[in-house]
């Protein structure tokens, strides 16, 4: 039996693996092509109180403000307080953060400022922090004798014993053959649900697979209606999705409409550095007013050498697409970016299912509330992965769950077989994403949400019927998980009779007097 099974090899999963491997054996499942994870696409950096000009209370206050009244104050304080130690740990591993070479630098490494932050507190590795993080952590994990990396398996269902405790995962090999991996403790670090939408900020975003797998075991899901749209994704219909970091705005970039007019200062005193929900809605409204497909983000007024030095990745990518950002504005459009909701966990990453943990974007810790503040996500990955590891180590002597071969497991393994991705899966995924993008996007309405609920229920019924004709496959399992998670997300949005943070409904534009988290289980779908 495996001791600890980690599903997901981004920053959260790798951090936990390294933090627990000194005392427990770890098996970590990660995609064969690591570009499928969201972590490596993180450009901005990690928010933490590092400068003597900053303090814990200021970071907490900024996070609470961005979360629009829905943050869990204890989770915010826990995360922010443990941030500096997480950065120190990364530095010990050799993480190549960008140094600050100015003679009056308050901190050895360069700190930038992003939306929602009152001061410079975002430590980074140029404009490719996620890639540098993954490289650093993966190199350490690959040579650790207690960590086994598997890129040949995809988890499609969690295993449970007769007492409802998680005891590993049912997987498929690359050729479609079934394999069950038993484990004493299972950790989901499988990412968010941006892949439910047509336009995203990463090429292969997760579709909430881990969230739904946890729900199948009875785990509670929280705040699914709060899907963050990053305000500035490169508008490039002929190319792959590419994020334009908020750090550009932090260093002086301004948003302009197609007429070349700046519009954010008239809407919010923080201008382009207002929280992401405000900026994304403002861009969406301006695009609707002009009837355009994008707006402009202009940083060309800054010295060209500074732009090339601070944003080498963005500069090079845009140049490859025919845009010199030192001379011309960047066409940008909002795109699905980050799920603030997910598997409800405590401060140790534990879910409501025994022996099942969730960390990173698949979890909902209460840190982000109704809207995530820029660069708090990688911070959350690090802090909660380290906290979960400590909890796993403290409870290592306790008896774990023991997998049992059940009739259901046997039937699943018989049904699973070698199969190609059927075309009908791709077609139905496209339909799902169209419904979510049109009806459950940046601005919502009662009628749109009702239409989405009906369309998704009909689509799931169709898929359930058609799936009987097909073997279990990774694409099919992914579609089934995505459909049910999308339906739960719509349900959460319909139940929230207010506009708060990322959930803006034009039919109920005001906030309720009391901010309450939404909590759903898979059983709630059966009542619809």
TrEMBL record:
It comes from the Bacteria. Residues 3-378 form the FAD-dependent oxidoreductase 2 FAD-binding domain. Its EC number is 1.4.3.16. Residues 431-509 form the Fumarate reductase/succinate dehydrogenase flavoprotein-like C-terminal domain. It comes from Franzmannia pantelleriensis. This is L-aspartate oxidase. Keywords: Coiled coil, FAD, Flavoprotein, Oxidoreductase, Pyridine nucleotide biosynthesis. One of its GO terms (biological process) is 'de novo' NAD+ biosynthetic process from L-aspartate. Pathway: Cofactor biosynthesis; NAD(+) biosynthesis; iminoaspartate from L-aspartate (oxidase route): step 1/1. Its main location: cytoplasm. It is an enzyme of class 1 (oxidoreductase). It catalyses: L-aspartate + O2 = iminosuccinate + H2O2. Pfam families: FAD_binding_2, Succ_DH_flav_C. Its cofactor is FAD. GO terms for cellular component: cytoplasm. Residues 442-469 form a coiled coil. It is found in: Cytoplasm. Signal peptide: none annotated. One of its GO terms (molecular function) is L-aspartate oxidase activity. Belongs to the FAD-dependent oxidoreductase 2 family. NadB subfamily. Catalyzes the oxidation of L-aspartate to iminoaspartate.
């Amino acid at each position: 039996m495996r001791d600890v099974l980690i599903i997901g090899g981004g920053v959260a999963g790798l951090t936990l693996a390294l933090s627990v491997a000194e005392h427990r054996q770890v098996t970590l499942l990660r995609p064969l092509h690591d570009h499928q994870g969201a972590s490596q696409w993180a450009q901005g950096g990690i928010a933490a109180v590092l400068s003597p000009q900053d303090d814990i209370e200021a970071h907490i206050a900024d996070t609470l403000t961005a979360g629009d009244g829905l943050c869990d104050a204890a989770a915010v304080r826990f995360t922010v307080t443990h941030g500096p130690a997480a950065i120190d740990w990364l530095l010990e591993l050799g993480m190549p953060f960008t140094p600050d070479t100015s003679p009056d630098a308050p901190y050895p490494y360069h700190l930038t400022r992003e939306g929602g932050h009152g001061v410079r507190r975002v430590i980074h590795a140029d404009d490719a922090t996620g890639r540098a993080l993954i490289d650093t952590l993966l190199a350490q994990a690959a040579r650790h004798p207690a960590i086994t990396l598997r890129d040949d398996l995809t988890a499609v269902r969690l295993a449970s014993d007769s007492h409802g405790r998680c005891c590993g995962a049912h997987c498929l090999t690359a050729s479609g053959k079934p394999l069950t991996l038993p484990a004493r403790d299972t950790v989901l670090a499988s990412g968010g649900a941006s892949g439910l939408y047509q336009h995203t900020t990463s090429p292969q975003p997760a579709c909430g697979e881990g969230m739904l797998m946890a729900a199948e075991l009875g785990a509670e899901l929280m705040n699914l209606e709060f899907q963050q749209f990053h305000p500035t994704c490169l508008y490039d219909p002929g190319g792959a999705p590419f994020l334009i970091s908020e750090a550009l705005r932090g260093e002086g970039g301004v948003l302009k409409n197609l007429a070349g007019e700046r519009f954010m200062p008239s809407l919010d005193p923080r201008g382009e550095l207002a929280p992401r929900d405000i900026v994304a809605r403002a861009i969406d409204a301006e695009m609707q007013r002009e009837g355009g497909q994008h707006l402009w983000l202009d940083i060309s007024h800054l010295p060209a050498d500074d732009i090339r030095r601070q944003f080498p990745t963005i500069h090079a990518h845009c140049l490859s697409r025919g845009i010199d950002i030192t001379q011309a504005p960047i066409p940008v459009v909002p795109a699905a970016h980050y799920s603030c909701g997910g598997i409800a966990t405590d401060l140790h990453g534990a879910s409501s299912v025994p022996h099942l943990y969730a960390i990173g974007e698949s979890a909902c810790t209460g840190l982000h509330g109704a809207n995530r503040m820029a660069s708090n996500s990688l911070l959350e990955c690090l802090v909660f992965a380290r906290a979960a590891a400590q909890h796993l180590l403290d409870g290592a002597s306790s008896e774990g769950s023991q997998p049992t071969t059940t009739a259901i497991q046997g039937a699943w393994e018989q049904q699973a077989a070698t199969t190609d991705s059927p075309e009908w899966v791709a077609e139905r995924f496209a339909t799902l994403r169209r419904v979510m993008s049109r009806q459950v996007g940046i601005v919502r309405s009662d009628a749109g949400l009702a239409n989405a609920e009906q369309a998704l229920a009909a689509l799931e019924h169709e898929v359930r019927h058609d799936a009987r004709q097909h073997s279990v496959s990774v694409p099919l399992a992914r579609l089934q998980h995505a459909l049910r998670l999308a339906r739960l997300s719509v349900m959460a949005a319909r139940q929230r009779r207010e506009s708060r943070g990322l959930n803006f409904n034009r039919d109920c534009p005001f906030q309720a007097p009391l901010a309450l988290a939404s909590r759903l289980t898979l059983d709630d779908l059966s009542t619809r």
